[in-house]
Design goal:
Helix content is about 25%, strand content about 35%. It is an alpha+beta fold. A five-stranded mixed barrel has the order 1-2-3-5-4. Strands 6-7 form a two-stranded antiparallel sheet.
Length: about 160
């Protein structure tokens, strides 16, 4: 670890722009957290056309954004999905444009079903056993019996509906 990061970054009395601050914070984060393992549960998984994979890694108290770029995503053997518990390896970085820190990943390994997903499934099963999802409890949607009036004054007709 760095003994005196402020001396290394010349931060004693210098006034920084926001861009300079974010750049130096990124350098510091990447230096200190260069190759760490973190365990958590995947949520908000996104796979844009670029081939990169983005998701949030969370536990019961916190979350962090993760980016798995295309070349590393191709090496992941497990199909990633929301609720999957994983161990990830990467570096902490800072997205300078927003000032948000994130994990830039180079490896993802499954760690079993996530605790939050299991709790959700247990609750769903409990409520199902109570009959809350049964078809007998479902109420059919209301549909208007007839349209009484459509106003020509508006581009979108104003409808008076009766039920």
């Amino acid at each position: 670890m760095i003994n005196d990061p402020f001396a290394r970054l010349n931060l004693d009395r210098e006034v920084l722009s926001v861009s300079q601050l974010n750049n130096r914070a990124r350098l510091l984060l990447e230096d200190v957290f260069a190759g760490i393992w973190v365990e958590g549960e995947i949520s908000n998984l996104a796979r844009p056309a670029s081939g990169h994979i983005y998701f949030t890694l969370k536990d019961s108290q916190a979350q962090v954004r993760c980016a798995l770029f295309r070349q590393n995503a191709a090496r992941v053997r497990q199909a990633l999905r929301d609720g999957l518990a994983v161990k990830v390896r990467g570096k902490v970085s800072l997205f300078e444009g927003r000032g948000d820190y994130q994990l830039i990943l180079d490896a993802v390994e499954p760690a079993g079903d996530g605790a939050l997903r299991l709790a959700f499934e247990a609750l769903k099963e409990k409520l199902g056993a109570e009959g809350l999802f049964s078809t007998e409890r479902k109420i059919p949607p209301c549909r208007p019996a007839r349209i009484l009036h459509a106003s020509p004054r508006f581009a979108t007709p104003l409808l008076n509906l009766t039920y």
